[in-house]
Amino acid sequence: MSQRRVWSVGLAALSLAAVSMSARAQEKPAQPPAPVPGWNEIVESLRTLPERMLAKLPEPMRSDPQVQQEVGRLALEALASQSLSAIGADGDFPQFLPSIGQVLNVGQPNADTLYRSAAITPGGTYRIRGLRRTLNHAVIAQGIRGGGQLRPQIFLSDLKADTDGRFELLLSPTRPAGYDGDWWQLDPGAHMLLLRMVSSKWGQEQSPTLAIERVDRPMGRPRPTATVLEQRLRALPKAIDTLALMFVDHHEQLRSEGFINKFTDFNVGAGSLQGQFYYEAAYELAEDEALIVESPVPMKCQYRSLILTNEIYETTDWFNNHSSLNIDQAAPDADGKLRIVVAHRDPGVKNWLDTAGCSATNWMRFARQSG
User: Fold this and answer.
1) Higher confidence at residue 156 or residue 8?
2) Domain 251-370's class?
3) What is the pTM of this model?
4) What start and end residues bound the annotated signal peptide (predicted)?
């Protein structure tokens, strides 16, 4: 009897040991600390980003290899745009950095527009100097964190300039005593300056040159601290997500609301420019069909354009396709109506827009118009 009890206890001990070893084997090993704090969070967010973007699209698009790869490209574009900002944006030592465009093709950039942005520190005083040059127009808007109102904006053409086109603009929350030059009041919440440089006569106009500096603190840029650099890294996942996810399903929303080959106005809210109006439509065409866009033209309008996008709201490549037309490229007909023809192949008529194989979105804008 005694021997049997010992044997039973021995088996129980072995069984408990086996369970304990099995439980330890199933436990995940502790993750080593990140060699660069903040880096692992970026990598993990990027790992799931394409899946989260595709989840906003209907099943036929999610399973389309073409759309899948274009979503991957859009994710890279958002990563590149926001990484450039994380590396170079500094409100104390600002510079106008590329934000979106033909390569960083996020949020349907306008084919005629160069987009730049400069970080600023709320409460700071800045000076912008440069040459106005000859573009259709160039405008700077203030980016206000948490602001629901329209962004304050200023056109370079409204600034005083010498005979060579040189200008100087001071920006601050309050006008300095005795200062009588061009001055622009900064909103207390302004953290960014957004520059749009818009052309209409390609090959004939010259873009402005601008330099910005903060003037209310000593010169000299010290080495950024580890804390500052880590903050920039940790802000990247949210910034990339915001840009990548913002418009990826916008075309599909137009379709679901019934705006197929039919325009609706688009209110971009606080992000819009004063005096600029936007209209958009999803288009759907067979290979042998054409869509004729007809619009009245305002009596007075400094700029207008029509561009095309693909299904995830990237602007159709206008460098290599005839996929955009502006006020100096498409004139109204004799009856005063503007007519533009959207087709997969050149129909042999004026004002043709090439779809480049897409069936997606038309985007029309009018700027500084009246009548």
Assistant:
1) 156
2) mainly beta
3) 0.88
4) 1-25
